[in-house]
Write a structure and sequence with these properties.
about 475 residues; alpha/beta; Four Helix Bundle (Hemerythrin (Met), subunit A); 434 Repressor (Amino-terminal Domain); 3 domains; eight-stranded mixed beta sheet; about 55% helix; binds guanosine-5'-triphosphate; binds magnesium ion
């Protein structure tokens, strides 16, 4: 997502970096490249024109702030304008009103409506503590009912047993009656899609909306971010025909160029409310224009990373690990848990991109898949180790080594390599624990005993074994050759 755009922006900024003042002349080249980058990302041309004009006006008029170089100032202006075209602050659904809130999910065929219906139900249930009823109202493709029932079971949300021979508006009304009886507060209605915008579908959706009108329904339009400008146009057509209250960008985990995210709000006037980021039910994010602008500009998105961690990391696991850690103990079992926590957060690249400045570094490194493959191999090796071995890897000698290699389908050398790397990690963790307990980091100048732990606000968060000691020894990190 946005990789190409980020890279092109980084290139464009080179022209203003190191300048003492931004002038009409030295900004021209940068703006030209920004403009091309946006057009290539499939951003609506009117949006591009207004955006570039606004950035130009602000940059030239800007007073040089002491201590901030014009390059940084320019990035800040870009950030503010990007966030602005995407809609300033996040606007979530207003559900805190009396009565049942009907949420109608609309959009073309295969855009991700049914998947999103499930994700939204889970989000409203867990984050907003709402009692939700899911309603299949896709009479066009009856299999959609079974699809929604499967999702409902998975996320433990009730699914209405719709009679698909009825008109979708009657299904909706029957579902509302049922929801009243069951004291539900939100009813999510999944509707049918069509290949193209078609009169019949629009007429049907209008009727469903009209039937619910007295309840002030939310109408969420799901648009596939991969389709760029097409998503923008279709959203506009839907909005003009039935009145949409929010847009959901789906498939943002794919290599969507960003055009839809950057244009849709500006062109339709409808706020983007959610971003769907994958096929799993928890892959849903609120749309935060400022955070997205930061990701595009490679300024990181630490807030989202922290939220992701809070949602996905098992507290008791983290606590037991921390306790071990304080005692200077780091076991293979802890390491496995740590790897699991990381993979729960997403792919290595997606996590690293949320850390300021790491986007550019990732572009230099290129492919992270060898590192991920090595992580997988380590997991397989660990899964062949007994509990006792995981608690104390030092007992692994000849016959155990053979058994682990056989069990994990690896060679004895690979198991030995893993244990060697683990030993390095253990030493590092031991050193860090000593430092946390006030002992200072062994052998690290500047981290004096009495001064204790000095934090460096610019330091990158380090995963065990990433860089650090291995680098000094000229060896390889546990993630494979040459990473970091
Ligand atoms: N990668 C990715 N795939 C998604 C996402 N959302 C949906 N999909 C996939 O896209 C396909 C279509 O999703 P559905 O939810 O069935 O789409 P729909 O709009 O309900 O389709 P119709 O009911 O046929 O109109 C499925 O294979 C989903 O798994 C997403 O955010 N990311
Ligand atoms: Mg569907």
């Amino acid at each position: 997502m946005f990789d190409t755009l980020s890279e092109k922006f980084a290139n464009a900024f080179k022209y203003v970096q190191g300048k003492t003042k931004i002038s009409e002349e030295n900004i021209e080249e940068t703006l030209k490249e920004v403009r091309t980058a946006l057009l290539e990302a499939d951003v609506n041309f009117k949006v591009v024109k207004e955006f570039v004009a606004a950035v130009k006006e602000k940059s030239i008029g800007e007073k040089v702030i002491k201590g901030v170089n014009p390059g940084e100032q320019f990035v800040k202006i870009m950030h503010d304008e990007l966030a602005k075209i995407m809609g300033d602050a996040n606007e979530e659904l207003n559900l805190d009103r009396p009565g049942i809130v009907p949420v109608l999910i609309v959009g073309l065929n295969g855009q991700g409506k049914t998947t999103f219906s499930g994700k939204l139900a889970l989000h409203l249930k867990t984050k907003r503590k709402k009692d939700v009823l899911l309603v299949p109202a896709d009479t066009f493709r009856p299999a959609a009912k079974a699809q929604l029932q499967t999702l409902g079971k998975q996320i433990e949300v009730d699914v209405f047993d719709s009679d698909l021979s009825m008109h979708p508006k009657d299904i909706a009304l029957a579902a509302i009656e049922e929801a009243k009886k069951r004291h539900k507060s939100v009813v999510i209605i999944d509707t049918a899609g069509r290949l193209h915008v078609d009169e019949e579908l629009m007429g049907q959706l209008k009727e469903v909306k009209a039937a619910l009108n007295s309840m002030n329904p939310e109408v969420l339009m799901v648009a596939d971010a991969m389709t760029g400008q097409a998503a923008v146009e279709v959203s506009k057509t839907f909005h003009d025909a039935i009145g949409v209250t929010g847009i959901v960008l789906s498939k943002m985990d794919s290599d969507a160029k960003g055009g839809a995210a950057l244009s849709i709000r500006h062109v339709t006037g409808v706020p983007i409310r959610y971003v769907s980021m994958g096929e799993k039910m928890k892959d849903l994010e609120l749309f935060h224009p400022d955070r997205l602008a930061k990701r595009i500009l490679d300024m990181g998105d630490v807030l989202s990373l922290v939220e992701k961690a809070q949602d996905n990391i098992n507290e008791s696991d983290a606590e037991s690990m921390m306790n071990n850690f304080k005692k200077g103990k780091f076991t293979v079992e802890d390491f496995l848990k740590q790897m699991d926590m990381m993979s729960n957060l997403g792919s290595m690249a997606s996590i690293l991109k949320m850390i300021p400045g790491m986007g550019g570094m990732l572009r230099q490194i290129g492919d992270l898949s060898p590192a991920e493959a090595e992580m997988k191999r380590m997991k397989v090796i660990i899964s062949s180790m007994t509990t006792q071995e995981r608690q104390d890897y030092k007992i692994v000698k000849e016959s155990r080594l053979k058994r682990i290699a056989r069990g994990s389908g690896t060679t004895e050398q690979q198991v030995k390599d893993f244990l060697g790397k683990f030993k390095q990690m253990e030493q590092m963790m031991g050193g860090m624990a000593a430092m946390m307990n006030g002992g200072g980091f062994p052998g690290m100048p500047g981290m004096g005993q009495k001064k204790g732990f000095r934090t460096d606000p610019n330091a990158m968060p380090q995963f065990p074994g990433m860089g650090g000691k291995e680098k000094k020894k000229g060896g390889k990190g546990p993630w494979g050759k040459g990473y970091f």
